[in-house]
Amino acid sequence: MRVFRHHYKMYIKTNRRFGKRYRCRITQFSVIESYRENGKVRQRTLCFLDWMPERFMRAVAWVDAFWEVCERKLSQFSEEERKRLVARLETLVPRSDEAMRIEQEGRDREMRILESKLGIRS
């Protein structure tokens, strides 16, 4: 039998599906609570946070709008739970400044690969 030392009642659930409108995969984010009913473990959705097309995960406008909605919806939870949920959500959808940094690193990496193929030294 496994013993979990840190069992949290709430967590972020992601659900991916194909969105016809944007013709790409869409990720939905929800806050789920685990509880026991008649000795059985159950889950229920406490709050639907938002959704985002995967091709816009690094678009600053989409990310900012996503975080604005999520911050508003997460304000109903306790400070401790909110911090933990936000930390988890940030690993899934980095905030816009983090998204911009990741995008810039990707461009820099592509430029270094291109320079190495062309024999250009910077």
Give me the Rg, rounded: 19 Å
* Overall mean pLDDT: 82
Number of domains: 1
Categorize the overall geometry.
Answer: elongated
Return residue spans where pLDDT drops below 50 for at least 5 consecutive residues.
1-6
| N-to-C CA distance | 58 Å
What string, H for helix and E for strand, traces the elements in order? EEEHHH
Strand content: 25-35%
Given the helix and strand composition, which structural class is it? alpha+beta
Order of strands, widest sheet: 1-2-3
Query: In which range does the helix fraction lie?
Result: 40-55%
Largest sheet: 3 strands, antiparallel
Q: How many DSSP helices?
A: 3
> Can you count the beta strands?
3
Could you explain how this protein is built, in words?
The structure is a single chain. By secondary structure, this protein is of the alpha+beta class. The chain has one domain (10-118). Helix content is 43%, strand content 31%. It contains 3 helices and 3 strands; from the N terminus they run βββααα. It has helices spanning 60-74, 79-92, 96-118, and strands spanning 10-19, 24-37, 40-53. Strands 1-2-3 form a 3-stranded antiparallel beta sheet. Helix 1 runs antiparallel to helix 3. It is elongated. It starts with 9 loop residues before the first strand and ends with a helix. Mean pLDDT is 82; it is low at 1-6.
Label this structure with key terms.
31% strand, 122 residues, alpha+beta, single chain, 3-stranded antiparallel sheet
